[in-house]
Amino acid sequence: MAVKLKLPPNRSIAEKPLWETVLIIVSIVCTFTLLILGITFSYYSNKYKQVVDERLSRPLFNQTPRIYAAPREVRVGQKLTASAVAQQLRIAGYSGSGNASPMGTYELRGESISVHPGPQSYHSQEGATISFDDGMVTSISGDARQQLSAYELEPQLITSLSEGANRVKRRIVTYNDLPQPLVQAVTSIEDRRFFSHGGVDYIRLIGALRSDLLAGRKREGGSTLTMQLARGFFLTPEKRFKRKLIEIAITFQLEHHYNKQEIFTMYANEIPLGQQGSFGIYGFGEAAQAYFGKDVRQLDLSECALLAGMIQHPSFLNPYRHPQRAINRRNVVLDAMVDTGDITPAQAEAARREPLHLAPGTIDGGLAPYFIDIVHDQIVRNYGESQYSSQGLRVYSSLDPDLQEVANQAVSDGMKTVDELVEAKRKRSKHPETIASPQVALVALNPHTGQVLALVGGRNYGISQLNHAVANRPTGSIFKPFVYAAAFNTSLAGTQLTAPATVVDTAENANPNADSTIAGDPQQNGATPPPPDPGLHHGLFTEVTLLNNDPTTFEGGYAPRNYGHHGVGEVTARYALQYSLNNATVELAQMVGYDNVAALARDAGIRSAQGTPAIALGAYGATPIEMAGAYTTFANGGARILPWEIASVRAANGDPLTDHQPDVKPILDPRVAYLTTNMLQNVLNTGTAAGVRSRGFLAPAAAKTGTSRDAWFAGYTSNLICVIWVGNDDYSDIKLEGAQAAAPIWAEFMKRAIQLPQYSDTRDFSIPQGVDLVKLDKNTNLLADPTCPENYYAAFLEGTAPHNTCSHPNDDGRNFFQKLFGLGGPQQPLPPSHAPTVLPPGQPQQPGNPGVQSAQNGDQEKPKAKKRGFFSRLFGGKKDDQQQQDQQQQQSPQ
Question: Is 66-159 in CATH node 3.40.109.10?
């Protein structure tokens, strides 16, 4: 039976309903679009899989060296508190006893703190318990309960060296290093479904697209943390559709290679969080230190929320520049954490009430960038670029962060004054012109170790990275002490000074760069000092040896000149150095021998010194660091010690690679070093450097000004050397004396330095055996007696002091028996065991600084010890106890 089928009529598209036609077209377009997108996405996935694989085959972050400060030493008797020690340990990465850190732990119990170094500690030492009372360290005991006089704390991590040309700073952290509130804060504000999605949050992405379409512009971002990480690692900031596809392709690759904790760790180390100085802050580890001065593990809820909030716009939300914006954003993050259930409303409210506890400017913020550059150059030079950038070296430096802060502040304040002086000179000039701002350098050393404690290489690192602390400049008159030290060597050898060659008195060819002097002598009321014993003239050199200061033309036509009215006649060596007299100093160098002066200078580290007349006035160049090292010769008992910045370099696991070996070279007898120091004390108290005293620095010290085309000041205490340089980069004349431009910076630095616990124990300079400190009359430079009330102390090698007294200039002064047996010299007051530091008139005594007294009261004699009897002196009998005690004090180490 045949069956008939009834087919539907064949309709054209035109006959179909409009909605059906549109649906077909949309389907075709979508299919085609998806096909194109699929092909494109597949292409980029394959292409960037190779890129991602190659990138992930290498370390994700450069393991640049980490730079640590010098260990802080805690000493019994030091002014310190337990909470301050705890803060130092927290900064160094220690944790409380409840949460062990590999760096170490501590237990704070009222007025004591117990320190327990961990396996990653710098020290292979036992722990200690430090006890305090009323803000002072009272005792330190080791783990075995033995009593210790001092204990070194863990060195503070001050920075990681920057990565590449972009000057990026980061401190690598692990996921376990991150406090849980920080993870919650980041995910609640940036990616709430991070731990559940596969890299792309489609729900959030669709919501963001819908919001943007309704607003007609881009308002919301749909990027997940993994997508942000993909952008940061592989892509440029451009916003194009093509880049979004690539970003998603890379996101899937990252999600395929790593778990969520690993991805979050990479994100935590990569995210940019602002700028500090010339460095970009990358990652939460660096940001925690930069903004709060903390290890990331010590961040509280409020601080975690603030850092998480900064991710949106780090510069706009910088808490230093825009504190209120940062607080408002922090509070938004806290609300988001309440919404996600990570914290309670009460916790959020408590965190909202917290003020910004920002750290003061940190070292990364510009406190020691020139010092860090020196360390960087040494590491690259010694280990090579590859090991520098990839091995995670741990570099333990010489830097004292507290002293570095003092140095920066002193330079900042001092250069404002220099700018004012320069501007005043410009306005007074007949031809006013624009003058560049002078540059500056400061170097501070431990004189007994060579440790570079603080260093400033310029006034603004962001503007100029030229490190003036290592720039070679003519040293001017801060070199002169080496001439006088070389002369003292002649006396030590029993050699008389060579009489000067015939000279021509002339004022022609005067040196315009001579050191300025101060008019008027507080000791002589402006008069040229009278001659000492005639037998000392051109003989064994002493402080009172006569030198000719007439304008003179020396060998090769060299004709220096002096400023002020100190330019004619014969003067004592003490007076010549006190007022930095040029002709007298060059004459002394001629008598000693220019080559001998140059040899001493080169031994001290001034390598460019040559044996010409110009050497006496510092014509040859040296860097501020080299001059600081050269001055250790005087401050360190005659032994020169080279400055150093790196104490130890260790591998990432803590294994030592290299340790610093001090470069010490004895070049002066301790007696000569002290004699030079004694003369430099006089320069500071009553000479060209006396302005330091009027600025309130009253501790025992020795110093010298210097002026060439630059301004210099070099000085030291018993435990600190500081050299200041101020000058122009183009070598033009700064037209300011060292006493004007450099001395105020030195005074401010030293004044603040001795307030720090570690430099507060400044003492008088110890007198070595073989040096006599005697009291001389100011008018005759002979031994003072009761008839000559105006007097001063001067130091002499044994047997070289004047023999006559001011009231009997031509008498022997010995009694009958002394003359009979040829014994002794004239009676003289027993000198004090320490060199007195006499202040300018009107200056008060400095409390707590022994040996400092007011010039208003004059130099006070110590009570005389009981004299030995005649036979005791005749046959060398034993000294009485008081004299033995005085001798022991004179020989005591610094």
Answer: no
- pLDDT tens-digit profile of 617-638? 999 999 999 999 999 999 999 9
Say if CB 751 and CB 697 are below 8 A apart. yes
Share of the chain above pLDDT 90, in %: 42
CATH homologous superfamily of domain 162-362? Biosynthetic peptidoglycan transglycosylase-like (1.10.3810.10)
Q: Which residue has the higher pLDDT, 850 or 9?
A: 9
Instruction: Please tell me the distance from the alpha carbon of residue 624 to that of residue 606, in angstroms, as a whole number.
Output: 10
- Residue 432: pLDDT band with limits 50, 70, 90: low
Q: CA separation (Å) from 44 to 53, 223, 242, 258?
A: 14, 19, 10, 20
List CB contacts of 41: < 8 A, sequence separation 6 or more: 245, 248, 249
d(CA 289, CA 296): 7
CA distances to 354, 488, 531, 793 from 681, rounded to whole Å, are: 52, 16, 22, 11
Rounded Cα distance between 704 and 6, Å, is: 120
| 88-123 pLDDT per residue, tens | 888 787 888 666 777 888 999 889 999 999 887 887
Spatial neighbors of 661 by CB under 8 A, at least 6 apart, are none
Q: Give CA–CA dist 801/806, Å, rounded.
A: 13
Are 718 and 685 in contact by the 8 Å Cβ rule? The answer is: no
* Residues 254, 235 contacting (CB under 8 angstroms): no
**Do 455 and 444 form a contact (C-beta atoms < 8 A)?**
yes
pLDDT value for 426? 78
Asked whether residue 57 carries a pLDDT value surpassing 80, the answer given is no
Q: Which residues contact 441 (CB under 8 A, 6 or more apart)?
A: 456, 457, 458, 467, 468, 469, 471, 624, 723, 724, 725
Q: How confident is the model at residue 215 (pLDDT cuts 50, 70, 90)?
A: low
Q: Rounded CA gap, 389 and 403, in Å?
A: 29
Kindly tell me the number of DSSP H helices and DSSP E strands found in the chain. 25, 33
Q: Coil, strand or helix: which one is 785?
A: coil
Q: How many residues does the chain have?
A: 894
**Beta-carbon neighbour count of residue 390 at 10 Å?**
14
Specify the 3-state DSSP secondary structure of 535. helix
Contact 401, 360 (CB under 8 A): no
Q: Which of 700, 795, 747, 777 is nearest to 413 (CA)?
A: 747
Q: Under 8 Å CB-to-CB from 91, ≥6 apart: which residues?
A: 156, 157, 293, 294, 295
- Residues 843 and 698: beta-carbon distance below 8 Å: yes
CB 795, CB 817: distance < 8 Å: no
Sheet containing strand 147-148, edge to edge, reads 95-96, 104-109, 112-117, 128-132, 137-142, 147-148
Cα–Cα distance measured from residue 464 to residue 436, given in angstroms and rounded to the nearest whole number: 13
Supply the DSSP symbol for 528. P
Distance from chain centroid for Cα 666? 26
Rg over alpha carbons for the chain, rounded to the nearest Å, is 37
Structure tokens at 589: 């160098």
Q: How confident is the model over 751-775, as a mean pLDDT?
A: 91
The tens digit of pLDDT for each residue in 182-210 reads 999 999 998 888 888 877 777 766 666 66
Contact in structure between 579 and 524 (CB atoms under 8 Å): no
Integer Cα distance of 178 and 299 in angstroms = 9
In whole angstroms, what is the distance from residue 671 CA to residue 663 CA?
22
Tracing tokens 């790196």 back to the chain, one arrives at 646
CA 560 to CA 514: how far, in whole Å? 7
> How many CA atoms does the CB half-sphere of 249 hold within 13 Å?
25
Q: Strand 439-445 to strand 656-659: parallel, antiparallel, or no bridges (unpaired)?
A: unpaired
CA distance 366 to 405: 10
Going by the DSSP 8-state scheme, the letter that residue 494 receives in this structure is T
d(CA 379, CA 387): 9
